[in-house]
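hey so i finally got around to running the thing on that chain from the lab meeting. sorry it took forever, my laptop kept dying and i had to restart like 3 times. anyway pasting the input first so we r on the same page abt which one it is
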Amino acid sequence: MTELNLTLACLPYDRFQPLLSGEIPVDGARVAPVPLRWPIEVFSRMLAHNEFDIAEMSIVHSFVYTAKRTAQFSVLPIFPSRMFRHGFIFINKTAGIRSPRDLAGRRIGIQGHQTAASIWIRGILRSDYGVDFDNVSWFEGGVNQKGLKGGHITMLKPRHPPRTQPLRDDQMLSDMLATGEIDALISPEIPASLRTSDNVERLFPDYQAEEKSYFARTGIFPIMHTLVIRKELHEQQPWLAASLYKACDAAKALALKQARYSGAPAYMLPWMFKELEEMDAVFGADPWPYGLAPNRTALETVQRFLVEESFLDEPMRIDDVFLPAGDPR
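ok and heres what got predicted. didnt touch it at all, straight out
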């Protein structure tokens, strides 16, 4: 069989590095990495031009475009990016916000309603803390830069859009939080004003404790991104999905093995091995599982949040969203 020559656009994650370097091969294919550093660039180029054979994609766009049957890609049960998000809710100290419920009726900044981080944060705040967002005034724009990251190609509008005011060209949410022009910020990025302004702090000062509690109660390690294949490529080469899944799983296992090697630390983390011990204690043998079986609760939860916010009209069968790829289902 002649090997396929494929482009792969994703960030240089440790769990993908053996795949990007060629140390772990993809059976039947040669993968040419596209070196990009910002996920929004990968998303926007894939959404606008279907530019890559394989690409990282927001979990939100994966669900919404699949539901609308407008996706030019097929979704793999491979999850390059996961992150707890309790630590990404920021408040102005003078706004009188003492608990999550105090966010009701406030002026809240947001990079984009459709970002995976904001979907997870709002969903968790509603379901776990009883936050009512009905009367919130939303301010949408860049956090640490002027303008909307990724442009309008990445924007998704819910069927019932919330009351939102776009920022002017000269405004940034980080600055607005520091000056009190907004009361709070929900963001995938840490605002620069957290370091530079005495007025800015996190809603949950001990956010790690909140996140550990959330995981202990739910078993959910929130999924931010998926891996997708151009739909036409998948239809022509249906075997490729399983080959990619196998290679990504092997790359992740090798990356974890390398991280655990104590002879020469692989990362710039002074107490990395203490962190690894804590990770093992919390997550067990595989802290970053692929496939549907270990991730079904997380996927059903984010889909429920998308339905609650009218990005989706109704839930889909999770198995219908993702390609069968030899993964545990």
